[in-house]
Amino acid sequence: MAMSRAVPAPLSPGNDIHLIVGIFSTPDGEPQxxxxxxxxxxxxxxxxxWATWRLRGMYGFFSLKTVAAFKVYECIGTNHGGHRRxxxxxxxxxxxxxxxxxxxxARFRDDVAIKWAKWINVCLNENSYSIELVLDWSPTRLAIxxxxxxxxxxxxxxxxNSRDWTDLATIQTAWGIASYVVTATGCM
Length: 188
Prior knowledge:
Elements: E1 17-23, E2 32-38, H1 44-62, E3 65-75, E4 83-85, H2 90-104, H3 110-125, E5 129-137, H4 139-161, H5 168-187
Parallel strand pairs: 1-5
Antiparallel strand pairs: 1-2, 3-4, 3-5
Helix pairs in contact: 4-5
């Protein structure tokens, strides 16, 4: 698949970008998909992020996984209803990595969004390809999930211990409660 073709002239007003975004998370191997219609190329990444949010819902907000990469897949046909992942060459993989980096930026320039909109229109829309969101463990979310109970137990232990710093029974109770907080959270 040659995804590194030259990009044509700017998109005309009637040439909207239609993009399918999906996540292969179902047991039957079929993606959960959502259609994204972008009328203004400058709003490409905003619409893309909104589609990701709609695909993942609140589960995506509380999940320890995050979008880690983009891949490409295609629909085999309406008669079969199946989907097939596409093996990309090195240049195409690099292009998908660059698209992902542009997507992950907190702020993006309009000219960058317009260039990626043109690229998507040529390389994905003309070939009926879709973008797969690849989920992977988020180190930041994992660190927060693992360190929060420890911080909470230290706070509870210190607060309870502050009642009487010299009483041995208070000290043992404080750190006993703190260890229960960590243990209970670890069991979840």
